[in-house]
Design a protein that fits this description.
Blueprint (H helix, E strand, L loop, with lengths): L6 H20 L15 H9 L18 H13 L5 H17 L2 H12 L5 E4 L15 E5 L2 E9 L9 E7 L12 E7 L5 E7 L5 E14 L3 E2 L5 H13 L3 H4 L2 H13 L1 E2 L2 E2 L4 H29 L5 H26 L17 H12 L6 H12 L6
Parallel strand pairs: 1-4
Antiparallel strand pairs: 2-3, 3-7, 4-5, 5-8, 6-7, 9-10
The structure holds flavin-adenine dinucleotide (FAD).
Length: 392
């Protein structure tokens, strides 16, 4: 077992750091948002594209760099460390591109892979519905065949980036035979978010941010060429896509700034005239945070190494996401507890510590263990697929 990165990978990390330093110095992009959805800049995505870093791990024959998932994690770790504004290309690069490479027709590959690689198309994922989140097979949105088209009707919810994405990756029911398992009744279809009949309504979350939406489909007409993979196979395809989402480093790194400011706070502040750093309980608490962070980080690299070996790390990805999301929720909790009342002030408040990043992270924290599959559902996956208990 060798935990070291290769010399080339270390050089690559330096190259990414230098690039980010230069981009930050230009002062034109919105670096620093702890939530991806608050960090959108198509121009920045264009710069990343020029470097060839969108589709870094995609095969060369599909326009990618043919590098490994470990290389991609190195790049993302550096991007998240400075909260780079990646939202425009993020879903396309992480999930949609690999999904199309696996399942898409030649037409869809030709149509969308170059657009993702060149930061010319932003994707939103439209899976969840009011009655279907963990249990996606309960989706009610329908796509009925009519000649060369599907006619889509229904409602999606929690659609991150739905208000700025040009393209939607939609899960809809396409088989209505009650004798067929519902797991074989759904398809994935790419929809132009500007199509007639698509209505997008903002949902403002507890932080006051507009990151996700409700999306309504009212007789939306989509050509059959936009069906991804096989008809009625969408459920299985989505489960593979979700493994890519769960295998990422985003859940560990999105709150990196909170970890930084927590350490800074402990190093530079006093309570009752005594330095916080002299308090053994506080030292114990921040040391535990550091241990959990490093363990989670190593696990994320391990999952990337499985992908590099051509394996689909379904329960390992679930384990990684579980460790990372529980860590980031704990980090927000520990930071707000240690910083006391000033740590609870929102960004923009004159007395807020560190621009209110800790409070912001705390308010986001209920969502950490929900998005991309809840931690309870992930534990079921770990038990069933990993430990072979309780499954069918
Ligand atoms: C910030 C954020 C961004 C999101 N972005 C998107 C997006 O872009 N596109 C999209 O489609 N969706 C998105 N979602 C939705 C997300 O995927 C769902 O919230 C998630 O899948 C859970 O579904 P639900 O909210 O309906 O909760 P439910 O499925 O109703 O779950 C409620 C509770 O019951 C528990 N539970 C459910 N089933 C089980 C079980 N079998 N065993 C044990 N416990 C269980 C859950 O863990 C949870 O605690 C986003 C969510 C958040 C918070």
């Amino acid at each position: 077992m060798d935990f070291k990165l290769t010399e080339k990978q270390q050089q690559f990390r330096e190259e990414v750091r230098d690039f980010l330093k230069a981009e930050m110095a230009r002062g034109i992009y919105p670096f620093g948002s702890i939530h991806l959805a608050g960090a959108l800049s198509r121009e920045f995505s264009k710069e990343v594209s020029r470097k060839g870093w969108i589709g870094l791990a995609w095969p060369k024959e599909h326009g990618g760099q043919g590098l490994g998932y470990t290389d991609r994690i190195i790049m993302l770790e550096e991007m998240f460390r400075v909260a780079a504004p990646m939202a425009y290309h993020y879903m396309g690069d992480r999930q949609v591109g690999p999904g199309l490479i696996h399942f898409g027709s030649d037409f869809l590959k030709r149509e969308f892979l170059p657009k993702i690689l060149n930061a010319d198309a932003c994707f939103a994922l439209l899976f969840s519905e009011p009655e279907a989140g963990s249990d996606l097979a309960n989706c009610k949105t329908t796509a009925v065949e009519e000649g060369d088209h599907f006619i889509i009707n229904g409602q999606k919810i929690w659609t991150s980036g739905g208000h700025y994405a040009e393209c939607g990756w939609v899960l809809a029911r396409t088989n209505f035979d009650p004798s067929i398992s519902k797991y074989n009744s759904f398809s994935e279809i790419i929809v132009d978010m500007k199509s007639p009949g698509v209505t997008i309504r903002p949902i403002i979350n507890i932080v006051g941010a507009h990151s996700f939406n409700e999306v309504f489909f009212d007789n939306v007409k989509v050509g059959k060429g936009y069906l991804v993979g096989k008809k009625d196979n969408g459920f299985r395809q989505i489960m593979t896509n979700l493994d890519y989402e769960r295998a990422g480093i985003d859940r560990l790194m999105q709150n990196y700034r909170v970890k930084e400011v927590l350490l800074e706070y402990v190093k530079t502040n006093k309570r009752n005239g005594r330095p916080l750093s002299g308090d053994t309980l506080i030292r114990d608490t921040v040391a535990k945070i550091e241990v959990e962070y490093e363990v989670a980080r190593l696990f994320v690299y391990y999952v990337a190494s499985l992908l590099d070996q051509g394996k689909i790390p379904s329960f390992e990805a679930a384990m990684g996401k579980t460790i990372c999301t529980l860590f980031e929720a704990k980090l927000a909790d520990v930071a707000t507890t240690l910083m006391g009342l000033p740590g609870l002030l929102m960004p923009g408040s004159p007395e807020a510590l560190f621009d209110g990043v800790v409070c912001e992270s705390y308010l986001w924290s209920p969502s950490y263990t929900l998005q991309g599959g809840t931690v309870e559902v992930l534990k079921n996956i770990i038990a069933q697929r990993g430990l072979k208990i309780g499954g069918k």
